[in-house]
Design brief:
The protein is of the alpha+beta class. The protein has five helices and eleven strands, in the order βββαββαβαββαββαβ. It folds into two domains: 128 residues, Impact, N-terminal domain (Ribosomal Protein S5, domain 2); 63 residues, Alpha-Beta Plaits (2-Layer Sandwich). 32% of the residues lie in helices and 35% in strands. Helix 2 crosses helix 3.
Amino acid sequence: MTYQTLARPVTARLEIKKSEFIAYAYPVNNREEAMFHVEQLREKYPDARHHCWAYIIGDPDNTTSAGFDDDGEPGGTAGRPILNVLQHKSIGNIIIIVVRYFGGIKLGAGGLTRAYAGSAQAAVDEMRLTPFVPMTQVQIASDFANESQVRYVVEDLGGSVGDVTYNKAVTLTVTLPECEIETLKDRLAMDGQVIEPKK
């Protein structure tokens, strides 16, 4: 399961027949995150006529979750064209939201479809894409003497250390690529560290 995802949020603007289209793209991991960004933009642009969007969660070639909304535009002229751009470019874990200010000139169904697809493409053109790497969290129980070695191994495998608790032993909550879990276990087993899934 390898696909591209967005490295950081981007924005693009288009003006088409006096209507302004502002496209925002955000990396997301679930539908709740995607809808959070939609609501944020509704608050930021309360006077805009439409807030149309499409998202893909997971692998775009084998979509586990996708959705779109025309937000009052004629059916199939806004959300679907945005989704089509994302699927065509094979970008996953992303939402594109296009905010439209109506300029007084009707675009017609074909014009709207081209405008929303063009807005999504303008956002894609601004993107820096990065390969998606599935991450997982585990807890590592270590003695004090080996804490720095555990930190070194985790970072060496492309992971990061989050919460650390100190009691009779040290418990580190770490995030690292799923594909490195077995390597982590092998490298730490020599020192007697215990690894278990994050509760």
